[in-house]
Design brief:
The complex is a heterodimer of chains A (about 100) and B (about 190). Chain A is mainly α. Chain A has one domain (about 1-95). Helix content of chain A is about 75%, strand content about 0%. Chain A has three helices and no strands. The mean pLDDT of chain A is about 90. Chain B has about 190 residues and is an all-alpha fold. Chain B has a single domain (about 15-190), classed as Cytochrome c oxidase, subunit III, four-helix bundle (Four Helix Bundle (Hemerythrin (Met), subunit A), Up-down Bundle), CATH 1.20.120.80. Helices cover about 80% and strands about 0% of the residues of chain B. Chain B has helices spanning about 1-5, 20-40, 45-55, 60-80, 85-115, 125-155, 165-190. The chains are: A mainly alpha (about 100), B mainly alpha (about 190). At the A-B interface, α1, α2 and α3 of A face α2, α4 and α7 of B. Chain A: It is found in: Cell membrane. Chain A: InterPro entries: Cyt_c_oxidase_su4_prok. Chain A: Its main location: membrane. Chain A: This is Cytochrome C oxidase subunit IV. Chain A: Keywords: Cell membrane, Membrane, Transmembrane, Transmembrane helix.
Chain lengths: ~100, ~190
Amino acid sequence: MNTVMNTQTAMRPCTRVYLLLVVLTLVTFAVGHFDLLSGSRALVLSLLVLGFALIKGQLIGDFFMGLKGLRGPWRFVILLWLLIPGTLITIAFTLAG
Amino acid sequence: MSATLTAAPPVRYPPGDLAIWIFILAELAVFAIFFASYAFARMGDVAMFNEYQATLDKGAALINTLTLITSSYFVVRALAAIREDQRKTSVRWLLAALAMGALFLVVKSAEYVHHFGEGVRLSSNTFYMFYLSLTFFHFLHVVLGMVILAAVALKTHQGAYSASEHTGMETGGVYWHMVDLVWLILFPLVYVMR
């Protein structure tokens, strides 16, 4: 019984993260599917969608890969990786207009 | 005083074998270069990239994204189960994760069949060159991840992992999460952003 309770307690944050990942994915799809990325708001919404992807990546790193709570440089390895392509993509899309 | 004595020591290294993390960093660096190359190549002909991006099946990409996220969650559940010495439960979660991986491959393959049927090739244009090479490179990583997960599931079934020793499962798990992580950037970049 205790074992079951421990597993459930430990899984709770990961289950919440999973549901958040699903919601952010559905929002990303809706932005593309309903053709919201046209006209003057295309760049802003594209970068918003990219922002969602970076948040999702950090959640995967922290909660699924187990980096949350680490001490030292490994704590930030996924964040660093996300920021490098994230920044370059932002620059390229902004310059392209 | 007693609180100091019973406090868990700070953890400095990530779960799993450190070697897999070095491998993962190398893989992530390659994908980062791919993503940046796509974004900067797009600057050369935005209209063409937008036109051909519209031919992609966003519904299939949504299914595949949800599939990989769910699969990653199942691997987390498998790890939580083995940490409680629930070996059979852990194997079941790993098999469920593998089934999700297989679904990803089926959906992605159907997309490729459709595009090839339409005459799309690597040489068709720059957009399709990036689309096919990026997604197929990722596809191969899904295949490798599934081979690793299958090996982990077999070893778990054979009793190789327990609550006290499950480094191998953590190692396989973080590789699978990396495959998921890469797709989470690839999906909006190639299918949605314009």
